[in-house]
Design goal:
two-stranded antiparallel sheet; single chain; 7 strands; 211 residues; binds ligand 3VV; alpha+beta; 2 domains; THEM4/THEM5_acyl-CoA_thioest; Thiol Ester Dehydrase, Chain A; 4 helices; coiled coil; five-stranded antiparallel beta sheet; cell membrane
Length: 211
């Protein structure tokens, strides 16, 4: 085994272990939101969690996991707030890019995403749509930063039930790209609609230009 292959296997093992930790941390958050344990039990669990937090902090990175190209050549950001498999905060959203164009994701929100009673928080759905729009423009070869994001909340988004998010580019002009996205129920009824204007930074047109 060459040193390169050994290093790649070490990295794979590190990432798999981090993904497992992030999944468990999501389970923990869900358990916290729904627990009905008594105060003594809550205090005991809190003390154990404080000890675990100290153990993780003992070996600390300076920054979250980087944006990078994975072993299969595709772009990945394992620490991303929306898609990052190693980020407990992430849903995580798994985005597909259908051959017909645009982006698509099936997702199920959890009680931890609740805003109004029985309804997913509007900021959470906006975050998902922002990311899906960003992926949609990137899939069209026009990666960009969100310039504006307009949301129309048409119906309550439930948690605990699958919904589908889809996005498509609608217009391009110079470094600007507009796209629409929607979260719909499985019957196709739109619940939240979004329009975004994305601006491709000059540096991304000519990577390395720095401007
Ligand atoms: C090597 C490439 C690597 C790429 C890798 C990507 C892979 C992707 C893969 C997977 C998908 C990931 C998906 C992520 C999705 C998440 C997206 C977010 O959450 S983004 C965070 C929130 N947004 C910000 O933080 C922006 C902060 N703002 C800025 O950085 C700048 O203001 C920026 C880039 C938006 C524009 O800066 P300027 O200097 O390039 O723009 P100027 O030259 O001033 O303007 C150009 C034109 O755009 C208009 N413009 C600029 N900003 C605007 C705005 N905010 N709203 C409307 N128009 C704007 C201007 O009026 C101008 O228009 P006129 O040419 O005159 O017609």
């Amino acid at each position: 085994m060459t040193a390169d292959v050994a290093a790649a296997r070490d990295e794979d093992a590190q990432i798999s272990a981090l993904e497992a930790l992030a999944r468990q941390a999501r389970e923990l958050v869900d358990a916290v939101v729904l627990t009905d344990a008594d105060p003594a039990e809550l205090a005991a669990v809190t003390a154990e969690l404080a000890a675990l937090t100290d153990r993780l902090r003992a070996v600390r990175r300076a920054t979250p996991l980087p944006h990078e190209f994975g072993p299969d050549g595709t772009f990945r950001h394992l620490g991303n707030a929306v898609t990052g498999a190693c980020n407990p905060h992430a849903l995580p959203l798994v985005v597909e890019r259908p051959a017909t164009g645009g982006s698509r994701a099936e997702l199920t929100f959890r009680p931890t995403h609740e805003g109004p009673p029985g309804t997913v928080h509007g900021g959470v759905t906006a975050m998902i749509l922002d990311h899906l729009l960003g992926d949609t423009v990137a899939a069209a070869g026009r990666p960009g930063m969100t310039g504006t994001l307009t949301i129309r909340y048409r119906g309550r988004v439930p948690y605990g039930e699958p919904v589908v998010a889809t996005g498509a580019v609608t217009r391009v002009e110079g470094r600007k790209t507009w796209a629409d996205a929607v979260i719909a129920d499985t019957a196709g009824t739109p619940l939240v609609e979004a329009t975004g204007l994305f601006i491709t930074p000059k540096a991304w047109l000519f990577p390395g230009a720095g401007g």
